[in-house]
Amino acid sequence: MKLVxxxxxxxxxxxTGQLNGSLKGLEAIKPFPETLDALRAITCRKALVTKGMxxxxxxxxxxxxxxxxxxxxxxxxDALRKKKAFKKILGRYSYFNASEIVVFGNRRDEExxxxxxxxxxxxxxxxxxxxxxxxxxxxxxxKFEIDSITELPDLLR
Length: 157
Fold this sequence. Notes:
Elements (H helix, E strand, L loop, with lengths): L2 E4 L8 H4 L16 H7 L3 E7 L2 H11 L7 E5 L2 H14 L8 E5 L2 H10 L3 E5 L18 E3 L5 H5 L1
Parallel strand pairs: 1-2, 1-4, 2-3, 4-5, 5-6
């Protein structure tokens, strides 16, 4: 693979377990224990696309100390803008084939759906409050499903 587009919440850190829908404890969040090693092991280009309030999401990125892994970071107000961010990344890296671009996230109804609609390779991380979400269309079915980010580097090889 040449490019991996990552989600943030419940993909790179345990948002559900650490924040539980609130911002209480934000300054104490930590990435999954294996996240930093996995990001180091993945040598292809990386982009981060996350949804939420700009200040809060950038705060999370700063606290988690992961910005250096992502030359491209997009914080989106809503799901529609998240899909537009994916398209912007595709335009920026138009020299990559769709089969060389992976979308990695924990939501079937956003990352996986948008990635599939755009013809990209999709990998679902079964974690967090959306881990039991059922697909509602063929676009919600990822090419791969994993239980831990530790599986990602080998899957990308």
